[in-house]
Amino acid sequence: MERSKKPAAIPVSPVQPSPQVVISDDSSRVSASLPTGESVDILLYGATIISWKSATGTENLFLSSKAHLDGSKPVRGGIPLVFPVFGPPNKDHATASLPQHGFARNSRWEYLGKTSSESSSLPTSKGDSSVKLDFGLQDSMIAGAQWDYQFSLVYSVTLNQDSLETSLVIRNTGPINYDFQVLFHTYLAIDDISQTTITGLEDAAFVDKTRAAAQVEAAGEPISISSETDRVYTTSTEKPSEPIAVSQGGKKRYELDRDMLPDVVVWNPWIEKSRSMADLGPEDAYKRMVCVEAGSVSAWNTLETGDTWEGGQRIKAL
Fold it and tell me: Is 185 tagged catalytic?
């Protein structure tokens, strides 16, 4: 006998697409992509981001055609991570025996896992809107680093639909206080350096490393690059997190926000220095890149035993 009224079917919400995370066969890199098409690639060597693409397939990071991606030396391009010292170490400091820019960028990190954002319940949702990848490094993983302090680092890379976030948590796990510097050495991809301007640092004084570290007063105007440029800007305490914009032909291409990172390095090697850099290519690479590097490097940060420091940046592709 048929029932006059059949039970109504229970509605089933459609399964939303989720971010995909892939570890390479040789376990040398982690790649992630969003359902909307954005992607990021990170080498475990240095936890170095070597690619960040928008949904259109546009590459936002410059990577040298001669970059070493086999773990034999730090990567030229992408976003290398600088810790615990910026630049050549001071011979009278505890970091004196470390390589330039420290050991974080030339150590193998551990992939700790991923976290995805919750999907929107809207029927027009295209799936999860972000994915966070975590990487870890601690003193026991460093071979011959010649830095006698105990630490734990957790580096997080978050891929969003319109931006990329990088953040670092540093914890002093030992019995001795220590000093450190930190910086995200970001190589931004551009079309033409001659058409590029940087705004947001007009009121910041800077150290000009191409002029024997001369102290220079704020210029009060946007930055344009027409020669070798290597400057460390320190933002004012009144505007510690002023957004920085990189524009091409008068149109904004990137916008950078910072947290606990008062300094910004602006770097471009230009023609002559490019020729002397064996791992920088192609020949006109200087035209296609500009480094805008958020960090805390103009002074030492002291981390007391048991304490934690955290800072980060968000780069929006426009």
Answer: yes
